[in-house]
Amino acid sequence: MRKLIALFIIISCVKVYAQGDMPMVWEAKLGHKIDYNGTGAEDRGYSYAASDKVITVFKNNDGSIIWTKPFSEVAPKLKKVDELIPFWESNTIFLFERKGGKDQIACIDMENGALLWNTEKYQNITEDVVIYIPEEESFAISLKEELVFIKAKTGEELWSTTKFSGVVGQYVYNSADRTMVMVNFEPRGLIAFFKGFKNQIARINMQNGEILWENVYIGRADRKVITKEFVYDLSVVSDKVFLRLNGMQVYDYNTGASLWSAAFDFTPDGVVPKPSGTVHKFGAYGAVAPPFIVGDDIYVLDMTNKKNQFVKKYDMNSGRLIWTSKEISGARVIPGMKVVGDKVALQIGGRVETQYYRTYKSGDQIVTEWGVAFPEVKPFGVQAFNTSDGSLAWESEKFKKGITNSISFDNYYIVCSGKALYSMDVNTGEEKYEVEVAKGGVGQASLIMAYKDDVVVVIGEKGVSTFSAVNGDLICSGKYKSSSLEDRVDDIVIMKTEKADIAAFDLNNCSYKEFKAKTGASTTLSLDGKYVYVYENKVVSKVKTR
Is 90 exceeded by the pLDDT of residue 128? Predict the structure, then answer.
């Protein structure tokens, strides 16, 4: 009976679904252009849009204006606004007037537009060097030679220290004693900005800036150019500090002493070429798979040498090396590592993520673009090692011509070549099935993703399709026009064209709703996946994804 129901669902989903426009919730016409915008979460209740002269804050539920003011009224000391940076957690916005050594900064209350404070004390400040610490209701601002700590609402400088260089990255705050363990980093584009920069992990007293202890970490901490996600992870468990960055590094929480390390200094610089035009910011991410933890065991990729790599298995508690695999020769990137059963499956080569900010010429126009792309990196391959001793279990020659990426479920390991899906038996390397992604009718795959417990989502050149991870059968398909992945929340996938048209796909049946935006429009998917905010020229629209 269950098989008959499943068959009925599959037949139903493959039918062509009637597509339509995204239902309009509201449309708000502003009295000024939109050069800057920011979308607050639905529970926050408001968002903003601004030109270089006027800013408007509006309600998320109906688009009504909460307040609108010219910058000349909000911050009279600023003759013009060259940059605007929101800090959502503090409900504030920084306004900058750049004067080449005499920069003016004004901090305003986002909820009512009131001026909180302004200063010209801090120079060459960008969004990359300011972090808000909500636990202290204060900002940590990294300057060339010192770190300063100021109250968010007043601008009062609480303390400064020259003993911490670079920008405050991820941190773990202890409310009991108001101390914080934090990692520094040097943002891309600001290399050599900080004098005497060195990799630091430190514990600091947030009441006075005293460094309680510091140590050196291995690798290059970073955050993504556009989305600002950290590409490493910091946590404190009992009396140990765990830093996952190109492997794992463990420190004593009380003293900062290194307990053990299985980390390797790897940088993806040069792995993929930068896009054409004038590239202001660029980063490549996901070139090395993160450590994989199973119980008390941790599997780490050793990418110290770009020509020779290894998988290493360690005891998570002591850091004892259990085994080192056979050499993986010539891999430039290893984006995927999964432990499935008693095998460690590696995806060698394939798609890596790049984020960039560039300027280029298109016809007679100069185009400024923030972009995300997923270029392929050669060579390609799939290997599996035995978890017991690290010996090579099998190696597949099937993927020499290409790989997008690989995903795993409890009982399935799926690899996509771009043209086909392959279900691999991780014990033997044999193919359980091979399915052409062309069956989905959305062109070649650029990426695959997992959905629920046994559904493979294919992000195609012209839409989205889904396949059964169990047997490779096509489940649903939604054909759209040439587009790329913009965002995903749960069962909603947003595809976007070069002209800024967007389509919201429902992964349950691959039907989609479309919004035809003007070229250059900015779009933001709400955190709950229910709405898209569209900013274009002088108009803000809120539309439903379903």
Answer: no
Cβ proximity of 116 and 164 under 8 Å: no
Backbone angles phi, psi at 195, to 5 degrees: -75, 130
Band the pLDDT of 9: cuts 50, 70, 90. Answer: very low
Please write the tens of the pLDDT for every residue from 95-107: 998 887 788 899 9
CA-to-CA distance for 227 and 35, rounded, in angstroms? 18
Phi/psi of residue 175, nearest 5 degrees: -70, -20
Tell me the residue type at 234: L
**Among 285, 284, 243, residue whose Cα is nearest residue 260:** 243
Q: What pLDDT score was predicted for residue 181?
A: 97
pLDDT (tens digit per residue) in 214-239: 999 998 888 898 888 999 999 999 99
Per-residue confidence (pLDDT) for residue 7, from 0 to 100 = 36
Distance from C-alpha of 324 to C-alpha of 302, rounded to nearest angstrom: 9
The answer for residues whose C-beta is within 8 angstroms of residue 452's C-beta and 6 or more apart is none
Can you give the pLDDT at residue 349? 92
* Residues 534/499, Cβ–Cβ less than 8 Å: no
Q: 378-387 burial by CB neighbour count: b if 16+ within 10 A, else e?
A: bebbbbbbbb
Q: State residue 455's pLDDT score.
A: 97
CB-based contacts of 193, cutoff 8 Å, min separation 6 = 124, 144, 186
Cα–Cα distance measured from residue 478 to residue 441, given in angstroms and rounded to the nearest whole number: 8
Calculate the alpha carbon distances from 126 to 131, 187, 215, 349, 406 in Å. 11, 11, 27, 35, 37
User: What average pLDDT does range 521-539 have in this prediction?
Assistant: 90
Overall average pLDDT of the 172-176 stretch: 95
| CA 378 to chain centroid | 23
7 membership: H or E segment, kind and range:
helix 2-14
Asked whether the bond before 290 is cis by omega within 30 degrees of 0, the reply is: no
Closest by Cα among 478, 481, 484, 483 to 464? 478
Rounded to 5 degrees, φ, ψ at 57 are: -115, 130
Are residues 284 and 353 in contact, defined by beta-carbon separation less than 8 angstroms? yes
Q: Is the pLDDT of residue 362 over 80?
A: no
- Burial letters for 483-522: b for 16+ Cβ neighbours within 10 Å, e otherwise? bbbbbbeebbbbbbbeebbbbbbbbbbbbbbbbebeeebb
